[in-house]
């Protein structure tokens, strides 16, 4: 193995270790948050994910656009959206110029639920990240990964 191959391998090991560590922290935060949401009688994080994306896009999103932006696996996305609409958390409106297409928008009820869920989610993000990484080290990580 040449010196350059050895350096490349060391760099890969560093990236691999970072990848594993990030995933472990993310998984722990996810599971802790899911348990806390369930204990509070609130929906799972995949509902929060949908509500957050719609709240960030006040003009609404087509379902395929929304699904592409989500952080968490949405194995039954269409059924989830239908349930959320039935509960009044989001609206499904006809898309301009496309009678069959729909645009999804968050409702006030959806915003209120998202705010309730955020209190729990934020606490778990804060606790999980501060336990895993010193605050001063987080800013560069976020900048590099964004």
TrEMBL record:
It comes from the Bacteria. One of its GO terms (biological process) is response to stress. Residues 35-138 form the HTH marR-type domain. This is MarR family transcriptional regulator. One of its GO terms (molecular function) is DNA-binding transcription factor activity.
């Amino acid at each position: 193995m040449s010196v350059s191959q050895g350096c490349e391998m060391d760099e890969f090991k560093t990236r691999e270790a970072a990848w594993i560590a990030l995933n472990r922290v993310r998984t722990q935060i996810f599971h802790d948050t899911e348990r806390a949401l369930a204990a509070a009688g609130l929906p799972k994080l995949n509902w929060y994910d949908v509500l957050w994306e719609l709240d960030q896009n006040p003009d609404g999103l087509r379902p395929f656009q929304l699904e592409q932006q989500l952080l968490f696996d949405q194995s039954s996305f269409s059924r989830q959206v239908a349930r959320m609409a039935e509960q009044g958390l989001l609206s499904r409106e006809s898309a301009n110029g496309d009678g069959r297409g729909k645009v999804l928008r968050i409702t006030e009820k959806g915003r209120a639920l998202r705010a309730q869920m955020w209190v729990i989610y934020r606490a778990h993000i804060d606790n999980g990240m501060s336990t895993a990484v010193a605050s001063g080290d987080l800013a560069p990580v976020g900048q590099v990964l964004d």
